Amino acid sequence: MPSIAPPFLQAGQRVAIVAPARKISTAEIEVARQTLQGWGLEVALGESIDAAHHQFAGEDALRRRDFQRQLDDPGIRAILCARGGYGTARLVDELDFSAFAESPKWVAGFSDITVLHSHLLRLGYQSIHGVMPVLFCQENGEAALTSLHHALFGEPLACAAPAHPLNRPGTASGELVGGNLSLLQTITGTRSQASFAGRILFLEDLDEYLYHIDRMLLHLHRSGQLAGLAGLVVGHFSQMRDNAVPFGQTAYEIIDHYAQRYSFPVGYGFPIGHKATNEAVVVGRHVTLTVGQAGSRLG
């Protein structure tokens, strides 16, 4: 069965900003609140905003209660996750999606929010991988904001990348799955793991050691998760680290090392992930990946 797309937003509707992971203040999302209001939306802030428990936006119970309230409220038509960090996986098993199923709504975010994207896709629903409220004010982020607006309001959405020497040409179609590589490995074998089979996988990551990237790709390979892919989209791998004795490959070269074992098309350099050029994509949407001599396109 195709994944279900929640209704697109309309001016005058209410959206919620919540923090299922790292703590955040009202001041840090003021630009986002004003931006969303400029889009004609009413903005509700969850109780996790301004809450704090060590690095988290409140204790697990508070963050879970906040997210559940937004899932259950039929007047909230989208849930925007304020920031990533760490903590979403601590909540997801206790969330009840029965009211959400009666009235689906968009959930948007990236990085740690990969957990929710995968969980929702396994339940059969689409969601938006895109820029989060804490980053609405970043320099050179106009394309990211525009694409998020397009995704929320149902306007045409496409993502492109220039030619890259590691690209493998070809065309593939399928539902989009993926997100942050570290989180995809973390949820392997859990109730939040969505199948990659027959789908186009996109990957991004931040602040990881290069040998960690290799270890995670090796795990996806050995566990058979790469074998049935229709295609692979590679986004930003930002602020990679190395050891005193260099690993000897870049993140893209590590990915290529494993991708070469398969025949699906691969496109590198997509503006997805931890940079200002983080364009929105819809997880679960049926898309076509085209990789050619001039570059790659996902749409």
Could you explain the architecture of this structure?
This protein is of the alpha/beta class and 299 residues long. It has two domains: 14-153, Murein tetrapeptidase LD-carboxypeptidase, N-terminal domain (Rossmann fold, 3-Layer(aba) Sandwich), CATH 3.40.50; 159-298, Glucose Oxidase, domain 1 (3-Layer(bba) Sandwich), CATH 3.50.30. 26% of the residues lie in helices and 23% in strands. It has helices spanning 30-38, 60-72, 98-102, 114-123, 142-153, 181-186, 210-222, 251-259, and strands spanning 14-18, 42-45, 76-81, 106-109, 127-129, 159-162, 170-180, 200-206, 231-238, 266-268, 281-283, 286-292, 295-298. Strands 6-13-12-7-8-9-10 form a seven-stranded mixed beta sheet. Helix 7 (210-222) runs parallel beside helix 8. The radius of gyration is 18 Å and the shape is globular. The model has no long low-confidence stretch (mean pLDDT 98).
